[in-house]
Amino acid sequence: MCRLRYRDVKDGVITFIRAKTERTSRGNLAPVVAKPTEHAFQIIAKWGNRETTKDTYVFPFLNESKNAVDERRIVQNITRNVNKHMSQIGKELGFEAKLTTYVARHSYSTVLKRSNEVSIDYISESLGHKDRKTTQHYLDSFEHEDLERYGKLLVAF
């Protein structure tokens, strides 16, 4: 979200390429297309940059004067801070798992998959995967994590 610009927000829809995807993929990149809730737009209105030209970042963490190294450091620091606060919230709510942005991404895709109402193709698009196989592998890894956790439950007596 740090690299999100106002040009990425049109008619209530956000379209962007994940930075990791840009760094690790060749060829045409699959954009993430999201329809945020009204609450998300309230957050943007409250915390976003006041200048809303198409090239302005939505949130005031980055600016054009930053070089790539500084930009990456800033994004990593913000992610670390968000993860710290998510972890604290999770503890207060009594969650056993440590909440992070990574866990949120996994939870998002797992909930959609287990709903049996959302296609793998939609999940793939919403994660920014250009290849359905990447999404399938991503989702299958959760099943293996579940198997390990369930196995431990069987012998926890």
UniProtKB/TrEMBL annotation:
The keyword Manganese does not apply. Keywords: DNA recombination. It comes from the Bacteria. SUPFAM superfamilies: DNA breaking-rejoining enzymes (SSF56349). The keyword Chloroplast does not apply. One of its GO terms (biological process) is DNA integration. Residues 1-151 form the Tyr recombinase domain. Gene3D superfamilies: Intergrase catalytic core. InterPro entries: DNA_brk_join_enz (IPR011010), Integrase-like_cat_sf (IPR013762), Integrase_catalytic (IPR002104), Tyrosine_recombinase_XerCD (IPR050090). This is Tyrosine-type recombinase/integrase. The lineage of its organism: Bacteria, Pseudomonadati, Bacteroidota, Cytophagia, Cytophagales.
